[in-house]
Amino acid sequence: MSNYKRIKGTKDIFGEEIDYWYYVENKAKEMLEKYGFREIRTPIIESEELFSRGVGQETDIVQKEMYTFEDKKGRILALRPEGTASVVRAYIENSMINFGSPQKFFYIGPMFRYEKPQSGRYREFYQIGAEIFGTDYPLADAELIDFLYEYFKTLKLTNFKIKINSIGTTKSREKYKKVLKEYYNPFLPILCEDCQRRYNANILRLLDCKIDKDVAANAPSILDYLDNESKEHFESLKKYLDVFEVPYEIDPKIVRGLDYYSKTAFEVEHLDLGEQAVIAGGGRYDDLVEQLGGPKTPAVGFAIGIERIIEALKKEHIEVENFSQIDVYIAYQGEQAELECIKLSKELRKYKIKTYLNLSKRNLSGQLKHANRLNAKLTIIMGEEEVVDDVVTVRNMETGEQTKVQRSWVTELVLEKLKEFS
RNA sequence: GUGGCUGUAGUUCAGUGGCAGAACGCCUGACUGUGACUCAGGAUGUCGUGGGUUCAAAUCCCACCAGCCACCCCA
Q1: Which residue, A88, A230, A341, A406, shows the most beta carbons closer than 10 Å to its own?
Q2: Does the C-beta of A165 come within 7 A of strand B?
Q3: Is the CB of A398 under 7 A from strand B?
Q4: Which nucleotides of chain B are near protein (any atom < 7 Å from a CB)?
Q5: Does A7 have pLDDT greater than 80?
Q6: Residues 30-69 of chain A: which lie with beta carbon within 7 Å of strand B?
Q7: To 10 degrees, what angle do helices A138-154 and A16-34 make?
Q8: What is the ipTM of this complex?
Q9: Phi, psi of A304 (to 5 degrees)
Q10: Rounded Cα distance, A101 and A133, in Å
């Protein structure tokens, strides 16, 4: 065994697993483009300050979960813990406001958070995110939620639900926090330890406490304390979602863990997952662009957790396409055949046929075994007999049926035979 | 950061103080130049790491590391 181990909370992704990744990522890209999003790739390292300012100095992400380090010049950098701040930075830095509004972006890539790993939670994890800049129109929020719904349906996921909420503007939220504190105050002595701590640190969190459920159930709802603007926005959002025919639940207990959210907040929860059941989450962040030094620009976005989606696909026993399956394995015996097979491999690959040319010295039996191992659809066999007759044998690895074909017709026959699979 | 369970071959695990094992997988070969069946042979381990107890430790004790799960938090 190697002395080197993968570091805690990280993963090697290969083999059959990679098919799930292709499935999730390819479908996402394809659909995001259909919705008019364009990809943006931002660096994985950013200045630490971008996140402490953007995500919020008081959040757990910034307080204890960031990978930060000094570079050789003493600059404080961080591995990105989330995608939005980077995209906002790029939007401002490249003056993208001049490209017309609204602007729609998506990204796919790894994020890093120093947390204790558990089911559905890694230190390096992948997100697919989307952001819309430059519109405060609730239709934008609705379209994002519609995307999530359509996307998960396209993946063939069924056992999930979409929850929406409005957490209002910063102002109205402060008002609500006061009301909540008043409500919780008399219960304080009987609340769990965590709730007592959170009472001052993050009062909104008391709402989704797993212990003091009863107290939370009767707590005043944030929806009753929204200012008119937020209320209207939320009403329109619901109206649009109905038009999109997206099923949703209103859950006033959804609070997001990042400071930048305002008005709309939403989560998609998968019912077969463990405690880390949120497969996507997002919301509106109308103040963030300005807060990071850009022009006042309203925005909405979401992030999807790829690992969690894959977990959900497995729980629902959804089969994914085998992207890496070999179409044709080329087995040969003898020097003459080898030379001919090298040429043949080039030919087949030109026709986009996934071709695996035998690369080792072993007998035919071993080569067939290897082909079987690779799950090849067809195997082309060329031995001394074939060389003499200028033919090759094409073997269907599922049925064992074999056909001899003139060397010059191989590609055509292979293309024909491959149609029987799929 | 806190807690519970678990670390032995590539994988799943047995071994509970006295020579490191099984099944599957892998490699080689046999059976008509032909895999998924059968048969024969072979390779693979610092028993998670470090310390301690003991004549003797995979086995007992301690610490650390890692995995899984839960809290916390989030995708």
Answers
A1: A88
A2: no
A3: yes
A4: 1-3, 10, 26-31, 33-36, 45-46, 65-75
A5: yes
A6: 59-61, 65
A7: 140
A8: 0.88
A9: -110, 140
A10: 7
> Taking a C-beta distance cutoff of 8 angstroms, is the pair A123, A80 a contact?
no
- CB atoms under 10 Å from CB of A34, counted, come to 10
Top pLDDT among A58 and A402 is at A402
> Can you tell me the mean pLDDT for A393-401?
92
Q: Looking at residue A190, what DSSP letter applies? A: G
Outline which parts of chain A fall under CATH 3.30.930.10: 16-169+240-315
Q: How far apart are CA A50 and CA A48, in angstroms?
A: 5
Q: Which pLDDT belongs to residue A2?
A: 56
Q: In sequence order, what are the residues at sequence separation of 6 or more whose Cβ sits closer than 8 angstroms to the Cβ of residue A61?
A: A51, A55, A81, A82, A113, A257, A258
Give the pLDDT band (50/70/90) at residue A121.
very high
What is the rounded distance in angstroms from the CA atom of residue A199 to the CA atom of residue A181? 7
Residue A12 (CA) to nucleotide B58 (C1'), in angstroms, measures: 28
> Cβ neighbours of residue A53 under 8 Å, at least 6 residues apart?
A291, A292
Alpha-carbon distance A302 to A130, whole Å? 6
Q: Any idea which of A4-8, A138-142, A315-319, A390-394 has the lowest mean pLDDT? A: A4-8
Strand A355-357 and strand A328-332: the pairing is parallel
Q: Which residue has the tokens 């993946």?
A: A155
What is the rounded average pLDDT for all residues in chain A?
Answer: 93
The pLDDT assigned to A321 comes to: 86
What gap in Å lies between CA A19 and CA A14, rounded to an integer?
9
Question: What are the residue ranges of CATH 3.40.50.800 in chain A?
Answer: 328-418
Q: State the Cα–Cα distance between residues A92 and A53, nearest whole angstrom.
A: 15
State what percent of residues in chain A have pLDDT above 90.
Answer: 75
In terms of residues, how long is chain A? Answer: 422
Q: What is the pLDDT of residue A414?
A: 96
Cα A403 to Cα A376: distance, rounded to the nearest angstrom = 16
| Percent of residues, chain A, with pLDDT higher than 70 | 99
The A 205-224 residues near strand B by Cβ under 7 Å are 205, 209-211
Instruction: Name the CATH topology of A16-169+240-315.
Output: BirA Bifunctional Protein; domain 2 (3.30.930)
Which residues in chain A, range 234-263, keep a C-beta under 7 Å from any nucleic strand B atom?
Answer: 255-258
pLDDT given for residue A197 in this prediction: 84
Q: Domain spanning A328-418 has what CATH number?
A: 3.40.50.800
| Residue A17, burial from CB neighbour count under 10 angstroms (0-12, 13-18, 19+) | exposed
